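Homework help board

Subject: predicted structure for assignment chain

Our instructor gave us this sequence and asked us to write out the predicted structure in token form, then describe one feature. I got the tokens but I'm not sure how to describe them. Can anyone check?
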Amino acid sequence: MNDKQPAPSTLPRDGVTPLNHLGVIRVAGEDAAKFLHGQLTQDFALLDEQHARLAALLTAKGRMLASCIAFKRSDAEVLLVCARDLLAPTLKRLSMFVLRAKARLSDASGDYALYGLLGDAARAALPEGDEPWAKADLGDASVVRLYPADGQPRALWLAPAASPAPAGAPTSEALWLWSEVRSGVATLTAPVVEAFVPQMLNYESVGGVNFKKGCYPGQEVVARSQFRGTLKRRAYLAHAPAPVAVGAEVFAQDDAEQPVGLVVQAAAAPGGGVDALVSLQIAATAGALQVGAAQGVPLTLLPLPYALLEDI
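My token output:
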């Protein structure tokens, strides 16, 4: 790590910030959950109103087209929160498969306000002891507990657009984006569409894949990667002393021709440099790594903030 970067525990991580980089898809109708159950990587048939789901939309070859945090607002309404740059193609693709299902899909981004809650703001909104993806309804607002960052709680707040902002001191979106990286849970964006099967982003270890549910597009590839030992890439937390772009290739120092990974997500670190989530060949993680070229921006791997599941 850059020697000038303070330890994460010394950096401020409290407050409330609007999440303008995210959008909302509404799935409404009596078949809303059933429809999503057949399209995404998580179980929606058993989804209640006290939990959310991290899930991915895949191609038939198991490659991720989008990721989302999904939860019920009522028995007949499920909201999907995803990267705004992927909302339109995600909505279009899901709409192709509605067929006779009693479900109506729409872009509801303008109907809701989204905020990120960090530190004390998250503590004030959610009960202590909840696991990630627990959900609480506070009046008109829905609050989802996310994976923490450096031990600090984080939450997603959604409420009707005219609602007052959640309680808490304002903080910057840049700080939130850094906390997203530090949490180790990747949000897919346009530069890396179709680059990964879910396990390449550790989704099976952070609640993003259910291996006991029924069929969905790409399921066979996901299951084969998990149970036949064919997975050769994983997501890692890393630090770089200079900016790196999402979608940039990562190279081992001794091979300038073949990249060994991709940058999935990156954000400026308050103490200097950039923290990033990178998906890498497992075999390449023991050596020196650079972004962009074999002699590019050096990359230092950091410990993941959660354990990878060894058994499903």
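Reply (TA_rk): Your tokens look well-formed. For the description, you could write something like this. The chain is about 15% helix and 30% strand. That's the kind of observation they're looking for.
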